[in-house]
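User: Predict the complex with alpha-D-galactopyranose.
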Amino acid sequence: MSDHKNGKEIPSLHKVYQDYFHIGAAVNPMTLNSEQEIIKKHFSSITAENEMKFEALHPEEDRFTFETADKILSFAKENGKSVRGHTLVWHNQTSDWIFTDANRKLVDRQTLLKRMERHITTVMERYKGQIYSWDVVNEAVTDSGKNILRDSKWLSIIGDDFIDKAFEYAHQADPDAALFYNDYNESNPEKRDKIFKLVKGLVDKGVPIHGIGMQAHWNLTGPSYDEIRKAIEKYASLGMKIQITEMDVSVFNFNDKRTHFTEPTEEMKVLQAERYQGFFKLFREYADVITSVTFWGATDEYTWLDNFPVKERKNWPFVFDVNHMPKNSFWKIADFN
Ligand code: GLA
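Assistant: Here is the predicted structure with alpha-D-galactopyranose placed in the model:
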C-alpha cells in the first residue's frame, strides 16, 4: 500500500500525537493479520478486543488459556507497542463457573472473592510490566433508575464492595499498573454523575484507582462536545487520569435501524470528519489528563458495529476506510496546525 495520497505523504497518527497521548487500537488475531500495516504504522498502543476477557482466559476453574493473548503481547513487544489490559471484572463474557458450585448453585461471597482474586492475580502477574493500564472493572454502573450499580452476580453475591476488592487485588498483583474503571454512556449527564459518585466513593475510601476509561462509542449527533467536556472535567476533578478506551463514531444514531446503505453518504462523511475534528480538538485541550485515546478497531474493514445494534449492517466508524486509506476524518485529526 502506498504511503501517499494524491502526492501527499500520510503521517503516522501516533507520531503526530506523540506529545499528547497514546493513539491505540483494539485488535484481534484476524485484524493483526489483515490490518497489520495500519496497526504498525499508526498506533502506539493496542488492546485485545476479546482475547483477555474472563471467558477467553479462564474457561474453567483450573484452566487458564493464555495462548491467544500471549500472541497479542508478543506482537506488541516485537513492534514496540504499549498494551492496555481489558478487562478483569465484568458482567458480560464471563464464564458462569465462577458464580456457581458443582451443583450449579450460586457460591457465597467468600468463595467468589477468592475466585476473583485468583483470576486477577494470575492474569496480572503473567503480564506484569507489559501492560501500562488495566480496565479492572467494566460497566458496573446502571444506565437508568436510582441505583448506581447495575444488577449482576458480582453485586448480588459479593455486595457493593466487589469493586473495591477488585481494585485492591489488582494493585497487589501489579503495583505499577494504572488501574481504571471503564464505562459507556460516560458523557451522558445522568450516568456521568453516577460514575462520578462511584469513583469518588472509592477515592474517599483509599481504594487504589487511578483513572476512568471513557469508552466513547459515539455517533454523528451525540454526545455533544459540551457533555464530553463536562465529563472529562468532573472525572479529572477526582484526580483521575482519563483514557478514551473504545472510540468509534457510528454513522448511525442508536435508534436508526435503516439497513439499505452500501457505503457512507457524502453527508455522513462530512459530518463524521467534523465530529472527529471536534473530538480531537477537545482531547488535545485536556492532554494533561488524557493519557491515551484508543479506537475500538483500526479501519472500516472490520468493526463490531457491523453487527450492533443492527445485525449485518455495515458501519464506517473509523478514520481509515475499508481499503485502509485515510478518510477526511483522518486528515481532520492529523492536520490540526
Ligand atoms: C463494551 C466492552 C468491549 C466490547 C464492546 C463491544 O464496550 O467494554 O469489550 O465488548 O462493548 O465490542
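The chain has twelve helices and eleven strands.
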